[in-house]
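Students often ask what a 'structure token' actually looks like in practice. Rather than answer in the abstract, let us consider Sulfate transport system permease protein CysW, a protein of 288 residues. Its sequence is given first.
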Amino acid sequence: MTVRRANNEPRWMRVLLLVVALGFLALFLGFPLVTVFYEALKKGVDAYLAGLADPEARSAIWLTLGVAAAAIPLNIAFGVAAAWAIAKFDFRGKSLLITLIDLPFAVSPVVAGLLFVLIFGSQGWMGPWLAEHDIKIIFAIPGIVLATLFVTFPFVARELIPLMQAQGKDEEEAAVSLGASGWQMFWRVTVPNIKWGLLYGVILANARAMGEFGAVSVVSGHIRGETNTLPLHVEILYNEYQSVAAFAAASILALLALVTLVAKTVVEWRMRKETEMLTADLPPEKTE
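Now compare that with the structural description of the same chain:
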């Protein structure tokens, strides 16, 4: 009934809603995106490439990619383990675990960065012990990885939990009853069933990891050529009125965002096609 009412809405209303949605996207997404590339290239390709060839810019690019590469495998391990525990088992504290997974969505990244400083900073709870063992976390790369991990860890888990709950435990139990070991069941039954959802969560987490600013800004120390990620490098250049170099660095983030968008669209298309194939294979329901 809901679908029928929606289809019977006046044509002018559908057109109005479409115009509002497209206008909003053009104003707040398309226009800023075009502006980034225009400002980056307005003084020519040579100036654009010179901005990217700067050693500090190259360091920021490699650090951004390296931090994302370090955080994503940990995200996958945590997300799969958390989703498996929540979807397959009943235990006390299950609701609390789900709430804690959502915590980074509710806590400001700046506050998260300050918490890491409070714990691992030189005057923090573990500061004297870390200094005694010559371990540096705050104002160093380990702190950036920790901050990035904190803000990104819900994405994989949140994508897998409803998917694994909907799939149930029947196929895993059938594999075990046929003699499969735990690893065989995981790699041959669970992973194929969750592969597209897992990839979707990884894409979202990777996009957030490369664009994170608040938490990383607090724990990085803004050391040029060492702890500046791309978002921090863009801020420094812009504050120093190096607009072309700033927008050139920002264009790399924009390109990564566009690649992420394309990958996300492909994964969504594959998930929809696979769902349609599984639905087509099901026997038709009896009418009597």
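One point worth highlighting: Residues 11-41 form one domain. Ask yourself how you might have guessed this from the sequence alone, and why that guess would often be unreliable.
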